[in-house]
Amino acid sequence: APAVRLTGLEKRYGSTVAVAGVDLEIATGEVLALLGPNGAGKSTTIDMMLGLIAPDAGQARLFGRSPREAVVAGQVGAMLQTGALRDGLTVGETVAEIAALHRRPGRVPEVLAEAGLTELAGRRCAKLSGGEKQRVRFAIALISRPELIVLDEPTAGMDVEARREFWAAMRAYSDTGRTVVFATHYLEEAQSFADRVVLLRQGRVVADGTVAQIRAAA
Ligand code: ADP
Ligand code: ADP
């Protein structure tokens, strides 16, 4: 089974059609950008892909399973825009708390290293920059050593240097053969980091291909 298969996915909010029939198959090992302007349906698509909201029609399958089954099995890591970090905890304590929930305490030093946070392990979350907080969320997403990682605008609020560090960490992870899906509204970010770009507009896939093909369509 492919890492991700979305068939006829639809979601409406009242009279707003957030996702208007998305069909998409993502192979294992692909790094795919969901590109589109604000309101295009990226977050709603991702939330349905993760089983966080139910589609009105269609379905999402991950590795041939329902999203919930894949999440429970630890095959999927998610980094969403929400997800508050507790100010009073250190980076290490924050990651350790979630690792304990996953019964993977041994992963703490590894994911701190994978997210470039080893030197910040003792710092309180209250003292982190926005980009550093995003890297903590990234570390948390890696705890189960997921085969698929799904990121919704992971570099929102980061400056250029923080973006560079974030993508270096991401690249190191994806180079181990993992599948990555990330939402962005930056063409440059899609161009630099994705093998394949899916352009969403008004809840529909309007282009799907390499960055050159997307540029022609955008
Ligand atoms: P994107 O992530 O591309 O910015 P979204 O998936 O967040 O797009 O939103 C798609 C459309 O659905 C937008 O018009 C947005 O306002 C609407 N929408 C998203 N979530 C909700 C919600 N919970 N209630 C009402 N409308 C929503
Ligand atoms: P994004 O563009 O990344 O989707 P938003 O700021 O549009 O970010 O959405 C943030 C949150 O608010 C999401 O949980 C989304 O479902 C919800 N949301 C978005 N649009 C609306 C809306 N029109 N009414 C209610 N909730 C919304």
From TrEMBL:
Gene Ontology MF terms: ATP binding
Which keywords annotate this record?
A: Antibiotic resistance, ATP-binding, Nucleotide-binding, Transport
Report the main location listed first in the record: membrane
Q: Does the keyword Nucleotide-binding apply?
A: yes
Query: Which membrane topology term applies here?
Result: Peripheral membrane protein
Question: Where in or outside the cell?
Answer: Cell membrane
Q: Outline the extent of the ABC transporter domain.
A: 4-218
Please report the name of this protein according to its UniProt entry.
ABC transporter ATP-binding protein
Species of origin: Hamadaea flava
